[in-house]
Design brief:
163 residues; 3 domains; globular; SCF_F-box_component
């Protein structure tokens, strides 16, 4: 029997795994992290998951995430999972500004003083220190955005509305 190549394992096996398993595989070794972090892999994984018959619908309820299966257009409640929100902030005070590849850019309200980058899948978050965010962000007018630069650096955008 021929040895399976690394590319075949990535293309045929890893692209079919759920996001949580991919997150764990990124911690195995540098080669896995490098390969599983490429834009090509992310697009392949998204296409495979998007074509899957096993779709999930996630919704927030108090301090838990409700995971529902979508079967023939109908919702079937599967599980409730307790999660910790970033910085132990009550979810009523979190405002989602942007999302990209599973990452959420959120601000804590009502004062909107903290800008947080959060990965709900891994439950990790990072407080972004933007000293003038509170002063310049207008809740009902401005928007946020994120993108990856060519150097694979995540960039956070503050999109101002001028009237």
């Amino acid at each position: 029997m021929e040895k399976l190549g690394f590319a075949m394992i990535v293309d045929e096996i890893f692209t079919r795994l759920p996001a949580k398993a991919i997150g764990c595989l990124k911690c195995v070794c540098k080669d896995f992290r490098k390969e599983l972090s490429t834009h090509f892999f992310e697009m392949m994984h998204s296409c495979r998951i998007g074509n899957s018959l096993h779709k999930k619908y996630l919704s927030l309820s108090n301090m838990s995430i409700v995971v529902d299966d979508v079967i023939g257009g109908n919702l079937d409640v599967v599980t409730n999972k307790q999660i910790t929100f970033p910085g132990n902030v009550d979810p009523r005070f979190l405002r989602i500004l942007a999302s990209l590849n599973g990452l959420l850019l959120v601000s804590s309200e009502p004062s909107c003083c903290e800008l947080i980058l959060w990965n709900p899948t891994t439950r990790c978050h990072k407080l972004l220190s933007v000293s003038d965010f509170c002063q310049w962000y207008v809740r009902n007018c401005d928007a946020g955005g994120m993108y990856f630069e060519e150097t694979n650096d995540l960039k956070v955008l503050h999109i101002k509305y001028f009237f």
